[in-house]
Amino acid sequence: MQPAGPTLLGFDVILIGSILAGIAALAMVIAIYSAVTIRDPMAKRVKALEGRREQLKMGLVTSTAKKRQSLVRKNDTADKVRTTLGNMKVLQDSQLEMMQQKLAWAGHRNKEIAVILLGVRMAAPIVLGLVAFVLLYVVEIYPEWQMKRVMALAAAMFIGYKGPEIALKNKASKRTDAIRKGLPDALDLLVICAEAGLTVDAAFNRVAKELGRAYPELGDEFALTAIELSFLSERKKAFDNLAYRVNLEAVKGVVTTMVQTERYGTPLASALRVLSAEFRNERMMRAEEKAARLPAIMTVPLILFILPVLFIVILGPAACSISDAFSGGVGS
């Protein structure tokens, strides 16, 4: 069965164009909806932080380990997936810890999601592989494909295996970049709060409120750190949790400075001021590096897209005139 319309590399051009037009229309609707419905970026985060505050309060007033165990939220789906993977002998503690770390970098604090994500990563290649096998070999939507079938089947299984991890890594990278942008301003505000006489947890809470709308990710982390500083028995644990949740060397440097300040009583304002200056210099050097790389990056688009258009615009009329002159001379 051959496609009725024009084809390009075996694909129906009209079908592909229709699909792309539908995707573009859907993206436009989503963009208009997002622009019209403006939501507070901190509303959901504040609700989650309040839940964390209540958990810490309940953990402090609970005396026995049995009652503490009742505070842990159970997830039936995660328990079923954990049991299934454990019976199949494919659930390793190292994989679970690594997935929990990646989820923390992406902003997900529920560690039970790691088990579900591992189960999805194991089941998705099988499901997508079966769907691709049925479509390619049973239904034969593209009967003219030979080796392309094997490549499409392998691509579907690869997407099923690596897709969730790539999406999680992309989200963690965007979140880390957002935190990196707001960290120098946050340190400046921490210096001001420290010089004003605020305690560390009050300073973190104040900075979270001031920067919550401009940098919601950073405000979320600082607010959670302020809550843990107020309730945890060891303040070092709160700073370690901040370094665990953020995949950024600058944050680890801030955590080390805060821990040393708590332990040895060194001046907090001066140490944070030095860190803030270093981070601003680092951000400036990174911007200069991107600016220096720009000419080399623009070379390929310039050669492929801009220069041919210039040649057509400049030489096109001359070529048409020469062609007309030669055609007139030949005709005469």
Provide a descriptive summary of the structure in words.
- It is a single chain.
- The chain has helices at residues 13-36, 43-61, 65-71, 76-87, 93-105, 112-138, 147-195, 200-211, 216-231, 235-245, 249-264, 268-331, and strands at residues 7-8, 11-12.
- With 332 residues, the chain is an all-alpha fold.
- A two-stranded antiparallel ribbon has the order 1-2.
Q: Assembly type of the shown chains? A: single chain
Stretches with pLDDT under 50, minimum 5 residues: 63-73
Strand count, sense and closure of the main sheet?
2 strands, antiparallel
Counting DSSP H or I runs of 4 or more residues, the number of helices is: 12
Percentage beta strand: under 5%
Name its key features.
332 residues, mainly alpha, 12 helices, flat
Secondary structure blueprint with pairings:
Elements: E1 7-8, E2 11-12, H1 13-36, H2 43-61, H3 65-71, H4 76-87, H5 93-105, H6 112-138, H7 147-195, H8 200-211, H9 216-231, H10 235-245, H11 249-264, H12 268-331
Antiparallel strand pairs: 1-2
